[in-house]
Specification:
Number of domains: 1
Strand order of the largest sheet: 1-2
Structural class: mainly alpha
Shape: elongated
Number of strands: 4
CATH superfamily: Winged helix-like DNA-binding domain superfamily/Winged helix DNA-binding domain
Distance between the termini: 24 Å
Length: about 130
Amino acid sequence: MSELSLRLEVGDVVRLGPGKVRLLELIDAHGSISAAARAMGMSYRHAWLLVDSLNGAFREPLVATKAGGKADRRAEVTPFGREVLARFRSMQATAQAALAEDLRVLESLLKAEARSRHMRDPENPG
């Protein structure tokens, strides 16, 4: 089944899509920007810059950091950040449901086309 990938541009400065949402979810799960970055295969600096840009764009921070404490639990997604995540996931589910039939049709057309090319010349699918 096809899956819809949602990317939003909110206002002039906020771009929110699967990558940033996944980063926030991993920060929430790990309690650490560096652990979330490692899980995504990105540098800590890049993850920090993404978090900083999101925190600066919204009226409240999505991620709170704290000095000291356990080294692996120095960041948390705020209640406001969880609200943003929930809203994004809700929008994604709504869009997926609304477009499910069109996605199924498109997917079936692509598969039919692939079968048609393969039947004409199995050695040269292109």
